[in-house]
Specification:
Layout lengths: L6 H13 L18 E5 L2 E4 H17 L7 H24 L6 H14 L4 H10 L4 H21 L8 H9 L7 E11 L6 H19 L4 H8 L10 E6 L5 H8 L10 E2 L3 E12 L5 E13 L6 H16 L4 H8 L10 E5 L6 H9 L9 E3 L2 E14 L1 H32 L2 E3 L5
Antiparallel strand pairs: 1-2, 1-11, 3-4, 3-6, 5-6, 7-8, 7-10, 9-10
Helix pairs in contact: 1-2, 2-3, 3-6, 3-14, 4-6, 7-14, 8-9
C-alpha cells in the first residue's frame, strides 16, 4: 500500500495531540479538573473523550490548512465519533480474523514517508519530535491505516470481478462515446441497512438541512465536514475525477445540466442520501503508451487450515529451491495454488491496474530475470519473476481496459461501503457523547 498521509497531516495530528494539554475553552478554576470519560462503547472496547478531542483538534487543523471554516466543535465531534466507531469496528474484525501488519511493512511505510518529504528517517523523527509526535505514535497510526487497507482488500477486493460481457455492454452503449471526465465532491448521509421509517425521516431532514445550507451559499467543503458520513468529509467531500463511462447514464445527464461549482438536489441511493457538486469537467480519452510486464508467479494461499506463518514458510522454502537451481516454471506447476500453475505460473503480458496493488508494486520494482522476495497480497504469499518489459501502444485496447478498471472501481466502492455498513450495524455500540 502506498502511504497516503503526508508529513503535514502527521504534524497536524501531533499539534492536535499537544493541544490536549491546553484548554480548548477559557481556563476553569484550579479546583476544577477535566476528567477523561467514555464517549462510546464498541463491542468490548471503548473510545474516550480525550481520543475524540485529539481527532477533533486534528480535523480543525486540517480544515484550516485547506482554508475551510470548520463547523461548530460539537457538530464536528459527532461526525468524527461515528467515523471512529466505524474504524474501531473494522480494527476489531481484523484482529478477530488474525490479520496482523508485519513490522517490516511499518518500517517500509516510515521510510516512504521520509522519502516523500525529502528527509532521512532521522530527520523525520527529529521533525516529528519538534511537534510533539513520538515515533511510536506515528507507527501506530500507520499500522491502523495499513490494517484497514488490507482488510478492505481481503474482504472486498478479492471478491470483486468484472466480466468481459459487462465491459462489452458499456462499450456498445452510447455512453462510451462520451469522453468527458467530471471532478466531483459529495455529501453523504448514510442510512443503516435496517433503518425504520422514523430513522429514515430523521436522516432525510439532516440531508435537506445540508442542502438548505448549500442553497444559502455555505461553502460545499464546510457543509461536507458538517454533515457528511463519508471518509472524505474532511477533504471537502472530494471524490476526484470520474470518467463519464464509470457513472450511470442518468447521472451523467444530470451533470451535463450543471454549471461548474453547482450542486445537485438530494439523490437517494442504496447507501443513503447524496448531494453532489460538479467541481470541474474536462475532455479525456487521449491515447496512451503503457509499460507492460511479462510475469510469472507462485501463490501459496492462506486460509483456515493454513496460517500466515505456515504459508510464508512454504513460499520461502520454494524460493530457496529456485535459488539453488530449480526452474521457476517447474516449481509453479508443483506448488502454486493458482489457475496459472499449469502454465508454469505464466500470467502473460499484464498492464498497470490488471493486478492487485501489492503484487503490482513488487512487480514494477523487480528487475527482469530476478526472483522477488515473498510478497503478501489479499490472496496469500507470492513469488514473482518478470521475464520481460515493453512499452506497448494500447490505443486500441485502452478504452476496453479503462472501462474495465472503472467498472471494478465502482463495484469496489459500493461493495466496501455495503460491507462496512453491515459490519457497523451488526456491532454493539453505545454512544455517550451527550451524556451529562
Amino acid at each position: 500500500m502506498t502511504m497516503k498521509k503526508t508529513l503535514l497531516a502527521l504534524l497536524i495530528a501531533g499539534a492536535a495531540q499537544a493541544a490536549l494539554a491546553a484548554p480548548a475553552v477559557p481556563a476553569a478554576p484550579q479546583s476544577v479538573r477535566e476528567v477523561d470519560r467514555i464517549v462510546a462503547v464498541v463491542n468490548k472496547n471503548v473510545i474516550t473523550w480525550q481520543e475524540l478531542q485529539a481527532r477533533v483538534n486534528e480535523a480543525i487543523k486540517q480544515l484550516e490548512a485547506q482554508k475551510v471554516t470548520p463547523p461548530a466543535r460539537d457538530v464536528l465531534a459527532h461526525q468524527l465519533l461515528e467515523q471512529m466507531i466505524t474504524e474501531e469496528v473494522q480494527l476489531q474484525y481484523a484482529a478477530s480474523g488474525g490479520l496482523r501488519i508485519e513490522d517490516a511493512a511499518i518500517d517500509q511505510a516510515v521510510a516512504n514517508l521520509a522519502k516523500q518529504n525529502k528527509l532521512s528517517e532521522a530527520g523525520l523523527k527529529a521533525q516529528l519530535a519538534r511537534d510533539g509526535i513520538s515515533m511510536d505514535r506515528l507507527r501506530g497510526d500507520i499500522r491502523r491505516e495499513l490494517t484497514i487497507s488490507r482488510l478492505r482488500d481481503s474482504e472486498v477486493a478479492s471478491r470483486v470481478s468484472v466480466s468481459d460481457s459487462e465491459v462489452e455492454q458499456v462499450l456498445k452503449s452510447a455512453q462510451s462515446a462520451n469522453r468527458t471526465e467530471y471532478h466531483l465532491a459529495s455529501v453523504l448521509v448514510s442510512v443503516p441497512e435496517r433503518a425504520d421509517a422514523k430513522q429514515i425521516d430523521a436522516l432525510s431532514q439532516k440531508v435537506h438541512k445540508a442542502l438548505a445550507d448549500l442553497d444559502a451559499g455555505q461553502p460545499f467543503a464546510k457543509v461536507s465536514a458538517t454533515y457528511s458520513d463519508a471518509p472524505n468529509a474532511l477533504k471537502g467531500g472530494d471524490m476526484g475525477w470520474r470518467p463519464a463511462t464509470s457513472l450511470p447514464v442518468e447521472f451523467v445527464q444530470l451533470l451535463e445540466k450543471l454549471k461548474t461549482g453547482a450542486h445537485t438536489d438530494v439523490i437517494r441511493t442504496q447507501q443513503g442520501f447524496f448531494i453532489f457538486q460538479l467541481v470541474d469537467k474536462r475532455s479525456g480519452g487521449a491515447p496512451m503508451l503503457v509499460e507492460q510486464y511479462h510475469v510469472r508467479h507462485i501463490l501459496i494461499r492462506t486460509n483456515e487450515a493454513v496460517s500466515e506463518a505456515d504459508a510464508k514458510a512454504r513460499i520461502e522454502q520454494v524460493r530457496d529451491r529456485i535459488l539453488r537451481g530449480a526452474k521457476f516454471a517447474d516449481m509453479a506447476k508443483l506448488y502454486s495454488e493458482d489457475g496459472s500453475n499449469a502454465k508454469g505460473g505464466d500470467l502473460g503480458w499484464v498492464s498497470p491496474g490488471d493486478l492487485v496493488p501489492e503484487f503490482e508494486k513488487a512487480m514494477v520494482a523487480l528487475p527482469v530475470g530476478q526472483l522477488s522476495q515473498p510478497v503478501r497480497s489479499p490472496f496469500g504469499w507470492h513469488l514473482i519473476e518478470v521475464e520481460g518489459k515493453r512499452n506497448q501502444d494500447v490505443s486500441s485496447d485502452h478504452e476496453k481496459m479503462a472501462v474495465k478498471q472503472q467498472i471494478r472501481a465502482r463495484k469496489m466502492e459500493q461493495a466496501y461501503a455495503d460491507w462496512v455498513r453491515q459490519l457497523r450495524d451488526s456491532a454493539f455500540v453505545e454512544e455517550h457523547l451527550d451524556d451529562k
